[in-house]
Amino acid sequence: MDLAHSLRLIAPETTLSIASLILLLFAAWSGDKASRTLSIAAVAVLVGCMFLVAPALCSGAMGPDVMAFNGQFRADAFAAFAKLLIYGSSAAALIIAPAFFERTGSMRAEYPVLILLAALGMGMMASASDLLTLYIGLELNSLASYVLAAFLRTDGRSAESGLKYFVLGALASGILLFGVSLTYGFTGTTSFAGISAALQGGIPTGAVFGIVFVLAGLAFKISAVPFHMWTPDVYEGAPTPVTTFFATASKAAALALLMRVSLEAFGSQAIAWRQIVMFAALASIVVGALGAIGQTNIKRLMAYSSINNVGFVLIGLAIATPQGAAAMLTYLVIYVAMSLGGFVAILMLRDDEGRPLEAIADLAGLSRTRPGLALALAMIMFSLAGIPPLFGFWGKFVVFQAAVQADYVALAAIGIAASVIGAFYYIKVVKIMYFDEPMDAVKGRSDWAHGALLVIMAVFMSPLGYLLTKWLDGLAQAAASALFVAA
Fold it and tell me: How large a percentage of the chain has pLDDT more than 90?
């Protein structure tokens, strides 16, 4: 492939890189007073990048024409699907941030720059077709994320979350690098296609260890059990817009990377890693559900909900079929929308002095003091629980359907039974809002951007969302097909 063709394929990444540098210079020149202008510009850049990647998804791009830089980078329909989620979630994290940070006087001009740099790394993760590209994208995202987690420099909880995320992230990166070195040593290549070809005739013991370590490093990024320990503390301590970013864009990128590595590089030896993924899936469902039951902080509850939902997504990966991959992508879109709506609702929980309220007890009687907010939050909670007719049910349905069609009936049955546990803590939040005596704690006025996003997500989660199933499933099938053609 010639250089011009490669440069055309990386147009979104080039745009993000140049825009980040320009905005960084503008931030250094203008200072924090330009932070809102910088945020608007960053949102415009991300929306522009969404238009750049959309044609690849709509056309079902796949095959040798989507390869760039001698197989280092793949701009296929799967990458486009993931990038649309990443860029859209990143734009939402920028839209909701100014109203939150400006109340405490902590809005900084570097926030939109860090979001763009993290989005650049996540885009590289989704398009990686080589272990070296994978690691560069992962570290670019991680370095920006560590700073974002500790963005409130005067808040002890934020500093603590940033430190924990950095230390445990460095450990996970070390585990991943060790797995990469073992994989390279026993296959002789870092290319996903080359690794898959090398493992066709059998898998040496050393390569098995390499797969295990690579998957362990990636499991940290998606907060799957037993590598989930950082999630509740980081979600609680990080500023809520940053937590929103972690729960949506970062989660989508990490899951896309895990799918790419598992199904492309190690797809020919799915039997070597399927049991690991099955364990992580079921353990995440159970641990996420049980861990959430005793939580009193709404952000920690959403952290355990994130762990729980990752388990359902991993059921699709354990199947290792195009139907399972398409089900994962469908679930991921719905989960990102539910998480975005949930955290926007949390941002709207403020007292009369504008201070954020995070205790679940503060939601008591919310249906009588803020009925619209209570209704939207209840819809999101029921949707996260997978209760029909809300759209969250469809995500779980397609994953379990794919498992049954692949003859993994026992896996689906255990997942369905475990999902009942998770319904308890979601319903508990709704019960507190609708049946407890009003605390009348939520009195702060909501920002218009928060309200608009919450309404959009609530409508998407409503039964109206089912009108999009044919279109969404078609895009997911096109993206998954590109992934398996590559394999």
Answer: 44
Number of domains in the chain: 1
First to last CA, the chain: 20
- List Cβ neighbours of 452 (8 Å cut-off, separation of 6 or more): none
Spell 381-419 as b/e; 16+ CB within 10 A means b: bbbbbbeeebbbbbbbbbbbebbeebebeebbebbeebb
Q: Please compute, for residue 183, the number of CA atoms within 13 A of its CA located in the half-sphere on the CB side.
A: 29
Encoded amino acid at 47, one letter: V
Cα–Cα distance for residue pair 329/63, rounded to 1 Å: 20
Mean pLDDT of the 85-93 span: 94
Task: Give the Cα separation of 395 and 398 in Å (integer).
Answer: 6
pLDDT of 423 reads 84
β partners of residue 73: 68, 128
The tokens for 107 are 């809005």
Instruction: Please tell me the predicted confidence (pLDDT) of residue 442.
Output: 74
Give one DSSP letter per residue of 211-254, joined into a string: HHHHHHHHHHHTT-TTS-THHHHHHHHS-HHHHHHIIIIIHHHH
- Contact between residue 224 and residue 309 where contact means Cβ atoms under 8 Å apart: no
How far is C-alpha 16 from the chain's CA centre? 19
Average pLDDT for 232-257: 91
Tell me the three state secondary structure of residue 310. helix
- C-alpha 328/C-alpha 395 separation (Å) is 8
Residue numbers of the domain that contains 318: 3-483
| 3-state class (DSSP) for residue 121 | helix
